[in-house]
Amino acid sequence: MKLAVLGAGAVGRSVAELAGEYGHEVTALADSTSAVVDPDGIDVAAALALKDESGRVGSATAAEALDAEYDALVEATPTTLGDAEPGFGHVRTALERDRHVVLANKGPVAERYEDLRAAERDSDGRVRFEATVGGAIPVLSTVESYGPETITAARGVLNGTANFVLSRMAAEGLGYEQVLGEAQDLGVAEADPSFDVNGTDAALKCAILANVLHDGGYSLDDAEVEGIADLPGNALDLAAEDGRTVRLIGEATSAGVRVGPRLVPENGTLAVSGTRNIVQLETDHAGRLNLSGRGAGGPETATAVLADVNRLAE
Question: Is 205 a catalytic residue?
Answer without folding.
Answer: yes
